[in-house]
Amino acid sequence: MKHCDQATQKWKRDAIFRACLASASYVAILAAVPAAAQSAGGADTLETIVVTGTRIQASGFTAPTPTQVIGTEQIEKNAQPNIFTTIAQLPSLQGSSGTAVNTFSTSSGQQGLSSFSLRGLTPIRTLTLLDGQRVVGANVTGVPDISLFPQLLVQRVDVVTGGASASYGSDAVGGVVNFITDKRFTGIKANVQGGITTYGDNAQYLLQAAVGHNFLNDRLHVQVSGEYDHEDGIPPGGFGENAPNGRSWYHATTLVNTGITNNGSPQYLLRDHAQATGYSKYGLISAGPLQGTAFDANGQPFSFLYGSNGVPAKDASGNVTGCYIGFCLGGDRSGAVGIGASLQSGIKRLDGYTRIGFDLDSNNEIYATFNMARVTSNNQPNPGAQKSGLTMSCSNPYVPTLIQQACTANNITSFKYGTDNAMLPNIHVNTSRRQMRAVFGADGKLSLGDTSWRYDAYYEHGEEITDIRVRNILLTNRYNAAINATLLNGQIVCADATARANGCQPLNIFGGLAPSPSALSYIVPDKGPFQHTHQQQDVVSLNLNGEPFALWAGDVSVAFGGEYRRENYRVNADPYGAGITATNTYNSTYPADPVLATAGSNWFAGNYHDGTGTYDVKEAYLEINAPFLNSPQFGKASLNVAGRWTDYSTSGTVYTWKIGGTWDTPLEAVRLRAVMSNDVRAPNLSELFAAPTTTTVPSFTNPFNKTSVTILQNTIGNSALKPEIARNIEAGIVLSQPSWLPGFSASFDYYRIKLTKGISSLTADQIVNFCFNGINQTCGAFNFNPASGLPFVNVQQFNLASIFTEGFDLEGSYQFDLPDMVPGHFTLRGLATNIGTFLTDPGIPGTIPQQTAGTNSGATPHWKFLMTQSWDNGVFSFNLQERWFTDGVIDRKYVVCQTGCPVSTGNNPTLDNNFMSGAFYLDVGGTYSFTDSMTAYFKIDNLFDRDPTPSPQTNTGLDTNPALYDIAGRTFRVGVRFSM
């Protein structure tokens, strides 16, 4: 299937084809994919057809792999500031990441990252291409950021909904998303757009412009485009239950644990307004004889109002009678932190793109493309810095006198304490991604013997620089030293003399009084966590395609080629996170402090680490399409086979293949297609060469001699990882524009994916005990008798997991005119994906496979739909779009019951309500053409302002799922497009 990549690249190579592509590509695709977004005349004038999903280019060729097509018209009608959103709405894409996902994250580096996920297999198993070519990753996992792509010149996006590794290589397990640009654009076009939500936030504006012109008697083709997009994002709500700017859907919906497992009632209850019992906004004594004493903003103690009429047990465990484990319902909820994260990251993206092509003759071109882009994003992962289980001394001079007296009366010297630290500034994460990418290539035709061959050769160099800066975040050890205050010579100071000698300033965490500037700068220094990542990608590729001979049923098409790719990354982090070493780049601006751990991991969150890694890949492929049937009685049929040899410098050689075919049956416009493939995902740079961290773990049990030892736990990459292997099967039927219903196309395709050797993470205990129990793969990851130093366990990832998913896709489109009734052109299109099974087996003894199909707290609902209807009379147009997915459950592991429940277990806990409703969203839009060159448009997303359904957790985090539900609410957009 890597042949598809080269087929896409051949679009670029074939100058004649590119000239026709803008007007006729969709009809060509429609012949192979029935529900293409558009149709146009002149398809029979094309000499070749290019279909993403195969490397074959041949007149009349149809690929066996289903492909969904989103064209310029649909992209424009959807009127999104980022084309990512339009594509991610396709039902076959589940679990894509965008600006509303990862906003709770501080350390992942994925804030504001927009990457596609096909079939719910996560972005790392979906290959995204630009003109059939790879793009340097925007994260060490290797996934690109669509925000960095040049978008105004995108002519269409092909989504291959099946394995394509034989054509494109690694990562194409779930499929391929291929952005295809207009390489022969001439003229000027521009787009100006603005938008805002009904709540007055996420204000957005977009500026785009492109110019294309031919020089030297139309032999030199130059295109330049640029765009700037600014999206404010959606701010956090703060503490309590108030969602930002008047949204009313947040209710701290939580799965509360009754602790009851065997009396016939459910262990878990689905409830709103959960109240944590271990902390409050300005502080709460959470255990012991003073339990239930809270503090107001001025530091004055008062009796905390527990929900559920709860009464503190005042024991060492901190139980509250009448409540649940860790939670009550109702009461004082001012300290809830779940809605305190940004609902959507703010983002700014700036992109510049240039393509220069020169025709050597009418069939051959040399070209170069240059892309420079920058995306910055910002988010707040949580308010304050919530702390639970702190041990506070009764003699701390910040403890109010009444509490000190109560300590004396109850004969205690300390108490357990929890606080939101609401007096501290909120954490902010700022991420910057810069991409520089250049491609130099040639494409065209050459003759070898009696055969005309199309070729494409190119070299690509890409660099990605990512900087992450976190502000307003605690240094944990300094915080612990600062809150441990004492009196010295009548002054309140830090109790730890070493900390005091190194600048420690005491901090009062009883109440909400703002800390002194010196105390704040001590625990929250100006230089927060920082990570600088530099990734490089180099690709050399050569692809050829021709019809060297014929069989009885027609010409045999052959595509073959090879590719070399090198991936490299280097990451440097601040010494407080990575470790204070002589070689750390940033030691001069992060002064040493004996209070801090020299091994790093000193921050409350955002502990980044240094690392580096490189691998290279050599590949060769061959694809053949052989027609074997061509008769009026039995129709036309062809066999499509491909194989790829791939050699990774890290994991050795792997082979991928596909075998499929199409049959144009004697029944008019009816085609059958089927394909089976063996696909791979090679381990990425992060999995192979993860930046190492080391922690000391006391009292670790050695199962081999039943002793307890102190070990070093090294979290590192695993260079011994092998590629994941997937077996894909697809089979379907296509009805393509029958004479009895012109303009109508439909398809049905079944898919089945079985992935083995999946890469999964294990704990130190699991690694050692797996080896003890006979799983040899983990035995090389630890040593209890090293020649020197402490025993160690390397916490790594291993090829242990598996995933099985199956379902089917439905697609249909109908285009028609009603000149006698309503002048204008009508287009109807619908797509649907059913996920019948999505079974994940972590490969860990004692666990059972998890079924997540229909789990609406994740990314794989049973059904996901996208429907569009449009009418266009050349001056006006009106468009409707419906997006919806079906009802589901919180988690398939739960046993639902109210009474007579079975014994609740870890694998199958009992729950009283496991229902999550689906969601229906109606979007409307329209255009008005002032002239042939200027069009105004509007778009309203989520017209009915449908609130998200709660996606309860077992804590008080954000109780909805932004991967499925719209959390922005009704959004208005208007704009003007210009072209000439």
TrEMBL record:
Which domain of life, per UniProt?
A: Bacteria
What Pfam families does the database record attribute to this sequence?
Answer: Plug (PF07715), TonB_dep_Rec_b-barrel (PF00593)
Q: Which SUPFAM superfamilies match?
A: Porins
Domain TonB-dependent receptor plug intervals: 62-176
* Motif residue range(s): TonB box: 48-54
Q: Does the keyword rRNA-binding apply?
A: no
Q: Principal localization? A: membrane
Q: List locations, semicolon-separated.
A: Cell outer membrane
Signal peptide segment = 1-39
Q: Which InterPro entries match?
A: Beta-barrel_TonB, Beta-barrel_TonB_sf, Plug_dom, Plug_dom_sf, TonB-dep_rcpt-like, TonB_box_CS
List, for all copies, the residue spans of the domain called TonB-dependent receptor-like beta-barrel.
Answer: 445-943
Q: How does this chain sit within the bilayer?
A: Multi-pass membrane protein
- Keywords in alphabetical order: Cell outer membrane, Membrane, Receptor, Signal, TonB box, Transmembrane, Transmembrane beta strand, Transport
Output a single Gene Ontology CC term carried by this record. cell outer membrane
Q: Which family does it belong to?
A: Belongs to the TonB-dependent receptor family.
Q: What is this protein called?
A: Outer membrane receptor protein involved in Fe transport
Which organism does this sequence originate in? Rhizomicrobium palustre
